[in-house]
Amino acid sequence: MDTRLSFMLAQGPSGRVARDSSIRQLYAGLTHIRVALSGGAKPMNTELHSRPSPFRDITSSSTAGLITTASESTNSFQERLATYLKAVDKAPCSLEVVCTLIAGLQLVMVRLKDPDPRIHALMRDAQGFRDSLVGTFESTYGSSPSRLDGKKSKHPAWVAFASLGFSDCTNEAVLVLAACAVLRAFHLKKPVSESLAKDLVQLNSFDPFSKAQLDHLLWEDVQEGDTSVNWLYTLRRYWREVVREYGGKTPVPPQTATERIRSQVLCSALNTKASHIAGALDHRLLPQSQFQLAAKVIAGELKQDTLKGMVGLVVLRTGLSAEVAPSLELGLAPRPEGLSYIDVARGVIELDLSIAVNQAGKALPGCIPSIHRIQIRLPLDVHKNLLARLRRYPHAKNLSELYPDERAPDPEGSIFPSPDELKPTWSRLRYTLALHLRLKGVNKLHAALLSGDLGIIPRSKLHYAVVSATEFHELEQSLYAELGLGAAVELAPDAQGVGSRLVPNAQNVQLHDAALGAQAESCRPSKNANAKSVRKFHNAYTRLCAWRLSILLALRETRHIELPACIDADNDGWVAIHDKYTTQDRGHQPVPLCAYVAMIILLYKAHCQATAERMYKLMGRNTPFGNACMAVANSDNQRLLMLVNDNDDVDPIGSGEFTVSLIPGFELAPDVGRKVMENHLRHQGVSSSDIDAFLRHFTEGQEPASGFSPNVLTTYVRRTSSAQQRIAKQLLGPPIAGLSQGDIRKSDIEKAYA
């Protein structure tokens, strides 16, 4: 994934992740102590490699020796915890470590219906240890993260736990994994694995999981080959051991077919191994020679109307395992969100993706109709065979029951006889279609949706991209023709696309742009206009320019656009943008400046120059607004875009200023630019890696946006700026001059729109 986990605990109804109240109270003591000991100053830096604390660290002596009021069980717990986590000498930052453990134990216990008394005893000891440390802190001591500098290589688990404690609030998945590791260590009386810290780091590199997603990972069936990331195996293995040893009578929930399918869809989205994303072949996939033979075998089996052929088709198109595919339920649309099924009447497989999309936005009017379901249209001959079988077996509930006389293929069995050392097994067929399509040059998003292999695209892409029903149907027709399966069933008139429900259609973008342009022209001041009219026009013109730049630069939702005024639009081919802040982001990233974007910036600076001069004449003095306009005109190091209020003070402009609907019948998302560019760049034939770089998506295996060689950046800018220019001409009106009409030649403005 492209961002590090924000350490948060429970998915809130607003879409933001809210802290659990008990966890918040748990960490409140740490913050209080840091503030109190520093004389009311801000809490100390929670980074592990921060400056040394001015406080005396509690562990300058033995931690246990300082806790004079602790019980015998508390001291015993402290010693065992230090042993099992391989603590640094004298156990520095013990408070942060034990708070991490307590937070994790709380999350584990609420998931167990009948927790074993041992886990309650462990919680009491941990809380007693924490209270003893807090009592010592309040009198004399503080906790210094600098004591852990240079200790990570020899004490990875201790440093990792302390790091989570210093962050004050953490993600549920991280806490559960940490607590399960300690519970397992206490049960086995062995230190935690050396790889635990690495697993925690891997988990931290993923986007936050909702409560539902985490519960799916903990409780539901995940096949061995679903994902190659190690932390998932560790989390599930530790969780099973904890439930078995500490869960009492807590039963493991039975795995329904729907739960298994949802788990496999989620794990497909989490499969982010760099080599797989980059399109490299490994032993888990069929090579092209075996894939071609397997496709012929499956096509032949489908002509004979066998379960083996149907399973092969479902595995190819959904990415589900050969073990799960036969259990795909039969049903009729519409079905509730979260259910995947075969609609035999329509000849469509509906693969639900909602489990892989965090807090998807609700559909807005005027957007391309879409859902987070892949609607897989079956070949016509296959559809006819299924209809005939359903008439013969009207009580069938799933795919396998339509073929009662046949057995589903063994996932480890061969699709066809082969002398090769690596056999062409059904398990290796999964995700091979995505590799095959990518080798043919198919866009990565298309390959992911055609094969069900969501791991080759960033998870956030499903929030921006949409593939219309017509576009997807054409892709299916091409795929079936290549595989020798004939034509797909016809596209229903009301068929919806797959992906984001917030992507506006091109006509609405054009209408909104025209409305903003008309709004600016309607308040263009005359030569004798007063200052109020100048301010009104400036704000309207700024909204128009901000809208166009937000679209073409794919800016995120923001309260203030941070484009710098020092952009040299005459010479710069790209601008560095940093509009998403995480602990592991790559900072400023290059975004191309096509001729249209450069002209918008030139016209805005010329407008600011003319506005500053006009305001000076009207006011007879320099004003904050006039000074700011002059600074923009001079390309000073400040914000390029700004609004002005009646007091001549300047304010930043945010997304909400220009995305408010001006025409009834449609609405725009605050980050509409990202949704527009994600899809229109794809329509312009821009490569998947260049699209991800343009939108500042970052995943392993992706071509870097800015390499060490300048040629890499130059080539990227050249490839994408031409597409950016075509999109500007397609969606936006010609550049409009502000108060500076005549300062820039009309021919130059027209050339920038060519």
Task: Kindly summarize this structure in a few lines.
This protein is mainly alpha-helical. It has 28 helices and 13 strands. Residues 1-21, 32-69, 223-228 and 703-708 have low confidence and may be disordered.
Main sheet strand line-up: 3-4-5-7
Catalogue the unreliable spans: 1-21, 32-69, 223-228, 703-708
Round the mean pLDDT to the nearest integer and report it. Answer: 83
Number of helices, where a helix is a run of at least 4 consecutive DSSP H or I residues: 28
Helix content percent band:
40-55%
Q: In whole angstroms, how far apart are the ends? A: 38 Å
Q: For this structure, what is the CATH class of the largest domain?
A: Mainly Alpha
Rg computed from alpha carbons, rounded to a whole number of angstroms: 30 Å
CATH topology-level name of the largest domain: hpI Integrase, Chain A
Number of strands: 13
| Beta content | 5-15%
Determine the structural class based on helices, strands and strand pairing.
Answer: mainly alpha
Number of domains: 3
- Annotated CATH architecture of the largest domain: Orthogonal Bundle
Which outline best applies?
A: globular
Main sheet: strands, sense, barrel: 4 strands, mixed
Give the SSE map.
Layout: E1 10-11, E2 17-18, H1 21-37, H2 63-66, H3 72-84, H4 94-110, H5 117-139, H6 156-166, H7 172-188, H8 196-204, H9 211-219, H10 230-246, H11 257-270, H12 274-277, H13 288-303, H14 307-318, E3 329-330, E4 341-343, E5 348-352, E6 370-371, E7 373-377, H15 380-392, H16 426-429, H17 432-439, H18 444-451, H19 461-464, E8 466-467, H20 469-483, E9 497-499, H21 506-522, H22 531-552, E10 574-577, E11 589-592, H23 595-619, H24 624-633, E12 643-644, E13 650-651, H25 672-683, H26 688-694, H27 710-731, H28 746-752
Parallel strand pairs: 3-4, 6-9
Antiparallel strand pairs: 1-2, 4-5, 5-7, 8-9, 10-11, 12-13
Helix pairs in contact: 1-4, 3-5, 4-5, 4-6, 4-7, 6-8, 7-8, 7-10, 8-10, 13-14, 17-18, 21-22, 22-23, 22-25, 23-24
